[in-house]
Design brief:
three-stranded mixed sheet, 8 helices, 3 strands
């Protein structure tokens, strides 16, 4: 699924942030508790998968679209700040994660999904595939998979959801 920038901003505005935390999901493996979810969110594995996907799409954005990327990044971040600032329970979640809202936003998939769409590479979907989980009121808090030092592998959508 390749999204356009306006669709991502629309998704941000319509998201009922974290309204289904801890409830069963029909998407992926579930975390069993908030404590487990926070631990997974802060794990080296999730951070590494996020970083690999982020750097891969950034290096594959065509040169003539780099300016668009910078503008979209900024506008998406501002939209997330505004939307999350109004969400009930988000400050408690940030406290549990021991993060401020700016750091938390950079780990949400929305900005990455815009970057993936600018590459026009359908295989770059690590962030884009997370959007449906957030649309449903859940939180992608972790990732299961293998990354290899000797070869590039774009992370697959093996998420853990709370």
């Amino acid at each position: 699924m390749v999204l356009i920038y306006s669709e991502v901003l629309e998704k941000i505005d319509k998201t009922h942030w974290f309204k289904n935390l801890g409830q069963q999901n029909d998407f992926y493996t579930s975390a069993v508790s908030l404590e487990q979810a926070v631990g997974l969110w802060r794990s080296a594995e999730f951070e590494e998968a996020h970083s690999v996907a982020w750097e891969a799409f950034k290096s594959n954005i065509p040169r003539d679209r780099k300016g668009e990327w910078a503008r979209c990044f900024s506008e998406c971040k501002d939209s997330l700040l505004k939307s999350l600032g109004k969400a009930p329970g988000v400050h408690e979640l940030l406290s549990q994660c021991q993060q401020d809202i700016d750091d938390f936003i950079l780990l949400l998939p929305h900005i990455g999904a815009i970057g993936e769409s600018l590459t026009e590479n359908a295989d770059f979907n690590f962030f884009t595939n997370q959007l449906e989980v957030y649309d449903a009121g859940h939180w992608v808090c972790g990732w299961l998979g293998d990354l290899y030092e000797d070869e590039f592998v774009y992370p697959k959508s093996n998420f853990i959801v709370f």
